[in-house]
Amino acid sequence: MSYVIPPAPIASVPVADSTDSFPVRRVYCVGRNYAAHAREMGADPERDPPFFFCKPADAVVAVAEGSTANVAYPSETANYQHEVELVVAIGKRGGNIAVGSANAHVWGYAVGFDMTRRDLQFALRDKGRPWELGKAFDQSAPITPIVPASRSGHPTAGRIWLSVNGELKQEGDIGDLIWSVPETIAHLSMYFELFPGDLIFTGTPEGVGPVVKGDIVNGGVEGAGLGELSIRIV
Question: Which of 1, 23, 108, 200 is disulfide-compatible with 89, CB 3.0–4.6 A?
Answer without folding.
Answer: 108
